[in-house]
UniProtKB/TrEMBL annotation:
InterPro entries attached to this UniProt entry: DUF2129 (IPR016979)
UniProt record similarity statement: Belongs to the UPF0298 family.
Pfam families noted in UniProt: DUF2129
Primary localisation category: cytoplasm
Keywords: Cytoplasm
Name of the molecule in the record: UPF0298 protein C7K38_10100
Source organism (scientific name): Tetragenococcus osmophilus
Locations listed in the record: Cytoplasm
Amino acid sequence: MLDKEETFTIQKRRGLIVWVYSLKQLKNLRRYGFVHYVSQKMKYVVLYVNEEDMEKSIEKLNRLHFVRSVDISHRPDIDMNFAEKIGTKAAFQVQEDIEEDDSNEQ
């Protein structure tokens, strides 16, 4: 049985876009992280690695002869809270206007 004191910790992960010359060596990329997506037409692989191992993984991937370049996903760096940008009052105001129009029509 599992101890109740053991807790599940979420690993911080980062997406890497690995541009390759050929997809023949795709199996070799699986040892560096989790392969999420493969584009056969544009020849790139989206690979997820632990954030603490990211720098080492990028260095190792760049040394491979079939890798063109490696790009880092910047999605975790982007602030996804848009309430201040849109204005929450403005969003509610539109709904109130619609409700007022419906009541006026009746």
